[in-house]
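Cross-posting from the chemistry board since nobody answered there.

I work mostly on the small-molecule side, so proteins are not my area. We synthesized fe (ii) ion and want a rough idea of how it might sit in this target. Sequence and SMILES are below. Is it possible to get a predicted 3D structure of the two together?
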Amino acid sequence: MVHSNLRDCKAWQDVGLPLSTTSNEACKMYDALLTQWVSWTNDPSLGGFESCTTQLQTADPDFVMGQVIINGAELLGTGKSVWLDKDLDAAMKRMVGLSKTQEITERERLHVEALDLFAKGSLPKACNIWEEIILHQPTDMLALKMCYDTYFYLGYQQQIRNTVAQVIPHWTPQIPLYGYLKGMYSFGLVETNFYDLAEKVAKEALALNPKDAWSMHTLAHVYEMNANVDNGLKVLKQMENNWKDSDMISCHIYWHWTLYHIEKGEYEAALALYDDKISRSCFKSGAMLDVVDACSMLYRLQMEGINVDNQWKKLVGVTKSHAKDHVLIYNDSHILMSLLGAKETDTANQLITSLQEVCQTPGENYQHQLGRDLGLPICQAITEFANGNYGCTVDLLNPIRYQIQNIGGSNAQRDLFNLLLIHAALKSDSRAHQKLARCLLMERDAFRPNSPMTERLTRKAIALHNVD
Ligand SMILES: [Fe+2]
């Protein structure tokens, strides 16, 4: 395979990002992996992620930055962790060992340090190190990508936006991956409520590269946040051929598509997309993003009153083995939804018990620190809802509603918890909770007007009021 556009040792050196290897092939495979990661695509023209990983390892098995990108993609991209995966743990230890025995640059040393912190669960500290790299080398896309994704896991919305805003002036359109940088920026903008600017920047990125699935994903968010449902459906459908082969994100974009259908009350269409795209992709990839999207979709449909028992029973085949992962609170909460949906009560209880245990374990794991104040009340709220104790769900969720952002994910993903609180308040026997439901719906309508779902739920809330 010819990799004429991929950067070799000299090319990386020339742009001030030298890599400590003498293998041009290893440098090119590093570039191929970076390109595929940033573009969310296993690109057959580059050989795919797995093949490039093998080729890199073969070309120079001791290439430190090669180990950084390979391990980084595993840790950040798949939901794996060193305490669950012995091979990954060994690979991380080997990477750290190599970094200590070789003459590498300060930038490379910092990369190793940051990824090691991430692997240990010290996500904010890892970001500090990546920020240090970016400060001196604003065109280091790997540092930027890992920092950006970690801010996403932390729910640090302003940092997602600002980290990219800071470096853009240092980039020129001639630098490879420039278009993707704009796409990354556009998502930071939508998450901080700059919807018009986000749309403009995403469209600029798409003009440079129509196949930029992350920029298309930004547009999906813009339409979601504005409840611009018909436009969302139209644009995703029109552009489907451009983004559907970006296999690391396409399932998630189909998830956004189904959100529009649920908004409109088109449950059959949502279920058809779930069966045809989301579920299929989830079972094929097993990737955590696909798994949590599948859980989220079924939970939303269930809250709308749709029977998805059969889908839960199938999905639990993928989720059950993750009950004790505790990598991210966001993931745990979604795994729990699937266990309860499939009536796997024992495993659901085990998830909560083991979460309680890791929360009490001293250490630097940020997610485990979040577990006590956020993870456990969220999981208990989900459990109480499944048991029909709707008032308890409200009492657990309402006090923490402004902290839920800290479990990471996007505004659209976390909206599930806003909806859970509203549904629980509507179903609660307490008059105060029913009033709260109306307040929450008025609030929702103020910032996201013309939502068919909000209108439906408001009609329910008004009907409850009229019973008195
Ligand atoms: Fe999204």
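Reply from a structural biologist on the board:
Welcome over. Reading the output above for you: The two ends are 73 Å apart (CA to CA). Residues 281-468 form one domain. Happy to explain the token format if needed.
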